[in-house]
Specification:
Helices cover 31% and strands 28% of the residues. The chain has 4 helices and 4 strands. It has a 4-stranded antiparallel beta sheet. A hairpin with a 2-residue loop joins β3 and β4. The longest helix has 17 residues. The protein is globular, with a radius of gyration of 15 Å.
């Protein structure tokens, strides 16, 4: 039997509705608490457009702007399977082709842009 995993990187922008209102970029949560969901989406939309047009590189932007601790790895989350991420994130990541970048994805953590970077099959006996 085999089960699939994907590998993905992401850029997370937290906002006032995020379940945890602090990050490595904003330990006290001041910026996050003052950011609306619409502002986070607008920022991510611009970031996504810059990446798609070649003005910016995904990993560079993730390292500088993502509110997730994965920023230190250019947004890389490593491989994960179904049931390991919040459902909207998981559905988006599994729905992408390798190399494809998602639209904005909302979760309890905030707003994300996801880059699918790989596919991994795990074989179990």
């Amino acid at each position: 039997m085999s089960s699939g995993q994907v590998r993905a990187s992401h850029i997370l922008i937290k906002h006032e509705g995020s379940r945890r209102k602090s990050s490595w970029r904003d330990p006290e949560g001041r910026r996050i608490s003052a950011t609306t969901r619409d502002q986070a989406v607008t920022e991510l939309t611009t970031i996504r457009e810059d990446i798609l047009s070649g003005k910016a590189k995904f990993y560079d932007v993730a390292s500088r702007l993502s509110d997730c601790s994965s920023a230190k790895r250019g947004g890389d989350l490593g491989p994960f399977g179904r049931g390991q991420m919040q459902k909207p994130f998981e559905d988006a990541a599994f729905g992408l082709q390798v190399g494809e970048i998602s639209e904005i994805v909302d979760t309890d953590s905030g707003a994300h842009v996801i880059l699918r970077t790989g596919l991994q099959l795990i074989r179990s006996l």
